[in-house]
Amino acid sequence: MSSKDPAPSIHIRRSPLGRARGLGAAKTGSHHWWVQRLSAVALLPLVLYFIVSVLMLKGAGHAAMAAYMAEPWNTVLFIALIAALFSHLDQGMQVVLEDYIRTDSTRLTVLMLVKAAIALLALASLISVLKLAFS
User: Fold this and answer.
1) How far apart are CA 132 and CA 124, in angstroms?
2) pLDDT at 2 over 60
3) Residue of 28, 38, 52 lying closest to 84 (CA atoms)
4) What kind of architecture, by CATH, is found in domain 28-133?
5) pTM given for the model
6) How many CB atoms lie within 10 A of CB 38?
7) Residue 11 has pLDDT above 90, yes or no
8) For the segment 102-123, what is each residue's pLDDT rounded down to a tens digit?
9) Distance separating alpha carbons of residues 81 and 39, to the nearest angstrom
10) Rounded-to-integer distance, Cα 132 and Cα 63, Å
């Protein structure tokens, strides 16, 4: 082979869909992106509602807080805040861990531990809201 001969190449005939199949983002990337964006949009008014609630209840006792949480809209909005917050946290942590942990086994282990911790914190938050609402 002389230096002017082109390098040998192999041409595999595949459609663009065939080339994309089996690649991570081609499967669930858009769903993940949408869930993260929708949870972020939901968090905007819910966090503002949470801040207003905290300011309104500043210095209130347990009885006042329980009465506030017993109102159905407050309970529903706090549960929505918990769902959006922990969903957004889960999606964001997954992206960070997948991007920065190279080893597959380590990535899977850390991802499972983080998801378990997020689920436990979400459950504890939900139980706290429900205990206040029904006390």
Assistant:
1) 12
2) no
3) 38
4) Up-down Bundle (1.20)
5) 0.75
6) 14
7) no
8) 999 999 999 999 999 999 999 9
9) 10
10) 9
Domain ranges within the chain, ordered by starting residue: 28-133
> How many other CB atoms are there within 10 angstroms of residue 125's CB atom?
17
- State whether residue 1 is helix, strand or coil: coil
Q: Distance (Å, rounded) from C-alpha 46 to C-alpha 119?
A: 20
Proportion of the chain above pLDDT 70, given as a percent: 79
Number of helices (H), then strands (E), in the chain: 6, 0
Residue with tokens 């917050």: 85
- With the C-alpha atoms ordered 74, 82, 121, 52, is the resulting torsion angle positive or negative? negative
**How far is 47 from 42, CA to CA, in rounded Å?**
9
What interhelical angle do 72-100 and 62-70 show, nearest 10?
Answer: 90
